[in-house]
Every structure is written in C-alpha cells, then in structure tokens.
Write a structure and sequence with these properties.
The protein is mainly alpha-helical. It has two domains: 80 residues, Rna Polymerase Sigma Factor, Chain: A, CATH 1.10.1740; 76 residues, Winged helix-like DNA-binding domain superfamily/Winged helix DNA-binding domain (Arc Repressor Mutant, subunit A, Orthogonal Bundle), CATH 1.10.10.10. 70% of the residues lie in helices and 0% in strands. It contains nine helices and no strands. Helix 7 packs across helix 9. The protein is globular. The mean pLDDT is 79.
C-alpha cells in the first residue's frame, strides 16, 4: 500500500508541477489578484489530489482541474466581500508579459512580444466585465478551449457561451475609445 501511495504522490506532483504555471495564469486572469489566484490554484490542487486515483484512470485530469479552478473562482465572485473595494498599502506589481505569455521565446525579437501597457489596459477592461463573460473570454482566448469545452467547464449551453462571448467582445469594443493606450491611429 505504501508503494502505491508513493507512486500516486509522485504522479500527482509531476502532473501538478507541469501545469501549475498555466493554472496560475488562468486563475490570475479570472480574478486579477495574484494572491487570490495562488489560493485558487492551491484549492484546485487539494481537490485534484483527493480525486487523483479516479481522474488519472479516466484521463480527465486537465478538464477536471480547469472546471475546479473556474468553480473555485465562481465561489469567490458570489461572496459579498468580493464586490467591495479592498484597501492595500501598496499596489501589486503587474505580472510581466513574459509570465502571461510563457510561449513567447525569451530570446525573441522584443517587437514580437505583447506591449505591457496595452496588456495592462486590456486586462483592466476585461476585469470590469461580468464574471461569466470574463470566464468565457479567458477560457476561449487564453486556454484555447472550444465552445463545447467551455460550456462543459461552466455548466452552461453552447448557445450561452456564444452569447456571453459576443456580449463581452461588444462591451470591449464599446469601451475601446475610452482607452487611448489601446487605440492606434491609422498611418
């Protein structure tokens, strides 16, 4: 029994270490708070560990992790304190673009990397979206999930996913003129 537990723990640890960065990025994009994002990832890891034997055998670990992470974020959004302003002694450092887009080669041409000012302004706009719209955009454009996969994660229909994505993009387009750092004049 001890060998099985050791093997199980090793498998879980390897899986978690390989996916922690992606889970953390997704959590941060959902809640826009590095500390809360870390808490969400830790809660997700705890849930995964408890269900590991069942999940590993079915091969559904990634989907379960994503669904658990989004559900943990949704629980936060329902809490009254989430809607209130929180005071802090100092503003958190923005997450660098390299951390948000790890697939960008560190040695790549800097012009090919996302502009940090644009990135920050865009995610402030996304952070103002209603929670379901924000979740749909994060899952679609950062997790690269299909509408069917997003519907499964959120527990809604594909039509709801399409509707929420459309409304979110329309909202962002309407807000774009109010963010000069994101508008570029045609030359």
């Amino acid at each position: 029994m001890a060998r099985a537990d050791t093997r199980r723990d090793t498998e879980f640890a390897e899986w978690f270490l390989a996916r922690r960065g992606r889970l953390l990025r997704t959590a941060y994009l959902l809640v826009a708070d590095p500390d809360l994002a870390e808490d969400l990832v830790q809660e997700t890891a705890a849930n995964l560990y408890l269900a590991w034997d069942r999940l590993d055998a079915s091969g559904a670990v990634d989907a379960y992790a994503r669904t658990t992470l989004v559900n943990q974020a949704r629980k936060l959004w329902r809490r009254p304190w989430w809607k209130r302003e929180r005071t802090v002694e100092r503003l958190p450092e923005p997450i660098p673009a390299d951390a948000m887009w790890p697939e960008h080669d560190q040695g790549a041409d800097p012009a090919s990397r996302p502009d940090v000012t644009e990135h920050d302004a865009l995610w402030r706009m996304v952070g103002e979206l209603p929670t379901r719209m924000r979740a749909v955009l994060v899952l679609r454009y950062y997790e690269d999930l299909s509408e069917a996969e997003i519907a499964a994660v959120l527990g809604v229909s594909q039509g709801t996913v399409k509707s929420q994505a459309s409304k979110a993009l329309a909202h962002l387009r309407a807000a774009l003129p109010h963010h000069p750092e994101l508008t570029r004049e045609s030359g």
